[in-house]
Amino acid sequence: MSIKSITIGFLCCILLAVLSGCSWLTDFYIQNLTDSKKIIKINYTYPISKAMDNEPGSIGFNYEHGILSPRAFYKIKNPKYLEKIEVRDSSIVLELYPNSTTKIYKSHNGSWRYRIKSVEIDGTIFYPEKLKDKSRYISNHYVYKIN
């Protein structure tokens, strides 16, 4: 074996080790494409009320009027926040505005699928796997559309 091939192999191993530790944003959005408000209930796998008390700025539900891509949503400097209708130990009820885009969960590496137990929209319960399957995957983000 030559020194060159050993060096290339060593550099590839270092690069692989560095990249295996990377994480990427995989936010979860819901777009309300209808002309009416939608009430949704999000059930979490952990006590969300305690997380809101401990980290009030990190648990917000940003929204914007209009149907925006995740990239366009991310560029907004001061997004609006949805009011929480009801907050229980591990669930939150929200009202989504018509023709709007709402960021439901900010996560890394798709962890929203393990932190959200279910989402109820118009009385229909969606579990994370079904939400993932019915969502559109756009630039590492998941976008569920309410038609």
Keywords summarizing the entry:
147 residues; 28% helix; single chain; alpha+beta
What does the model show?
The protein is of the alpha+beta class and 147 residues long. It has five helices and eleven strands. The protein has helices at 3-20, 48-54, 70-74, 112-115, 128-134; strands at 28-32, 38-44, 62-65, 80-81, 84-88, 91-96, 100-105, 116-121, 124-126, 136-138, 141-146. The strands form two sheets. A six-stranded mixed sheet has the order 4-3-7-1-11-10, covered by helices on one side. Strands 5-6-2-8-9 form a five-stranded antiparallel sheet. A hairpin with a 2-residue loop joins β8 (116-121) and β9. The radius of gyration is 19 Å and the shape is elongated. The N and C termini lie far apart (61 Å). The mean pLDDT is 87.
